[in-house]
Q: What sequence folds into this?
């Protein structure tokens, strides 16, 4: 019975992937957009060649480094800010308007400002990713404090636990599941912003640079291979974060 259930779960995951590949192949066969969409076979062949000659790995590594650096910056700034906003009503009232204002500004609209401030090197890309993901971490951390069980706080205060001890023993642990969920979103958002910034902020490497370069010379098979690599990278980061969340926050919901 267990084997049957496992097979059903596996098939339910594989079938959508197979359907997407078949639709992709159908578009290639119909020659609907030959300059935009390469066939799955030619994309796989191009990906194999890029992996074999070793030119894709450095771009993937640099994009990953920038993504992790941006997400780390977001956590370092966003989590303390969000926790403070959630824990203190006065601090929330002071920071609500700035946070909501900057949350409404797309990160891509700030390309020129970040280029002027940080130049066209890695720092501008990391800072832009940190800005975009930092707002996500701020809001998730704040909501994590707000949705914490009020009964536990009152019980702790009845026992004489208050101030930093209340925050450390009750508030922060209950906010961790929301922080972890925000981290997964922040990782994906950091990757998106880094790739887009590699396309449009002066760069000589990275997956974004490879995508835009191959698009400009109509190497659609290599372009699709780079796009698939970016998607695989984002998927892997999400699965690693989810596995760590399940292992470290095994008590969530209890």
A:
């Amino acid at each position: 019975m267990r084997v049957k259930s496992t097979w059903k779960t596996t098939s339910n995951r594989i079938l959508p992937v197979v359907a997407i590949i078949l639709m992709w192949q159908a578009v290639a066969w119909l020659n609907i957009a030959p300059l935009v969409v390469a066939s799955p076979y030619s994309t796989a062949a191009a990906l194999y060649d890029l992996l074999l000659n070793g030119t894709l790995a450095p771009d993937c590594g640099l994009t990953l480094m920038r993504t992790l650096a941006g997400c780390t910056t977001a956590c370092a700034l966003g989590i303390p800010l969000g926790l403070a906003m959630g824990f203190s009503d006065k601090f929330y009232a002071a920071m609500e308007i700035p946070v909501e204002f900057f949350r409404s500004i797309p990160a891509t609209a700030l390309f020129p400002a970040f280029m002027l401030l940080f130049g066209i090197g890695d720092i501008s890309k990391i800072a832009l990713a940190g800005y975009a993901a930092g707002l996500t971490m701020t809001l998730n951390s704040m909501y994590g404090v707000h949705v914490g069980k009020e009964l536990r706080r009152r019980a702790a205060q009845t026992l004489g636990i208050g101030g930093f001890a209340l925050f450390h023993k009750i508030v922060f642990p209950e906010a961790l599941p929301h922080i972890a969920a925000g981290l997964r979103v922040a990782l994906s958002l950091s990757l998106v912003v880094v790739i887009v910034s590699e396309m449009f902020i002066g760069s000589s490497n990275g997956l974004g640079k490879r995508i835009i370069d191959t698009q400009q010379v109509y190497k659609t098979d290599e372009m699709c291979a780079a796009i698939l690599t970016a998607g695989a990278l984002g998927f892997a980061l999400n699965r690693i974060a989810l596995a760590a969340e399940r292992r470290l926050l095994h008590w969530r919901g209890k």
Remarks:
- The chain has ten helices and no strands.
